[in-house]
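Chapter review: from sequence to fold.
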Amino acid sequence: MTCFGIAFSILLAFLLFAASGLYDVAASRMHWRLTREFLSFGLRRAVATHSRDISAPKLEDMNLIVLGAGHFEDGCAPCHGAPGRPRNPIAERMLPNPPHLAAVVSSWSPEELFWIVKNGLKYTGMPAWAATSRDDDVWSVVAFLRKLPETSPDRYRLLATAGTGRSNQIIDLGAASPESDDLANCTRCHGRSDLGSALVPRLAGQPQSYLEQSFHDFTSGLRQSGVMQPIAATLDAKTLRAISAYFSKLEPSRAKAPMAEDGAIGRGREIATRGVAETNVPACRICHSETASPNVPRLDGQYALYIEEQLRLWRGGLRRQSGNATAMRIIASRLSEAQAKDVAAYFENMTRFQPSPPLAKR
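The token string follows.
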């Protein structure tokens, strides 16, 4: 009973102190040092506990790092600052202060960083990722964070704006158009520059109706992305149409695709033009050709890594409600990882400036 009495007395003291209103909750003053130490200890232990079953993938791929740098620029830099750029003055007044990440990321494991970026931290201003189902998005941020301490301001600008370089080639919009800023933001990742991440799709020459539908899917949440959903939600119908029209009229890049593994392109061609009879997979080119429906994407010249990732998302059910959901989910589930890799290599090495090959007879 003695232990119970002591515990009850401590709890009662805390309740009376809270009820008195004496504790200063103003954001203009820092917590007491004892409070800070207690909260910091609890945060560390909570993150370590909840991240212990997470296993990090390989994070050295530059495509992942570049993609993460773009996400960091949009979602993290305003509060945490970036190399060569201080934090926003408003963020400087937040309590607790958003840390300068270059100074602290090395004290967290990749798994812990993943858990924090994905789930956020209560009562700190750190939000959860906008699409918690997209672990691939979150891992890209972690891949970049691990490189942040050694990233110079010039290197950061190169990584965070790797797709930039075509925003001055605005078709049908004009420099003074209110849509120009939104378009410039899109070209930072989806521009024609091949300095960007191969995990971000090339949009040049895609059908306008397909691009508009993709925007609508992101806005409604039918298609999940912690990056694209917040962006799409800010665009009105006029801007959405203007951006879609711009990319649809943009000439696709002539950049040469990387060499694929010997035989991969040939195997991929068989799948794309004949299908896979054993698993009842139809030929990809029935839908994905220049003369097919304007509501499906053109895959010739698309990044292989992007195609592979989308097939994984279809297979995992993360795009089960977006356009052509039923057919693509079934097809993706019937393709092995090796077959998906082959067909992706085939499409990446196909040029958009030649007629699509005819479907082979089965």
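Two observations follow directly from the output. Residues 180-249 form a domain with the Cytochrome Bc1 Complex; Chain D, domain 2 fold (CATH 1.10.760.10). The longest helix spans residues 2-20.
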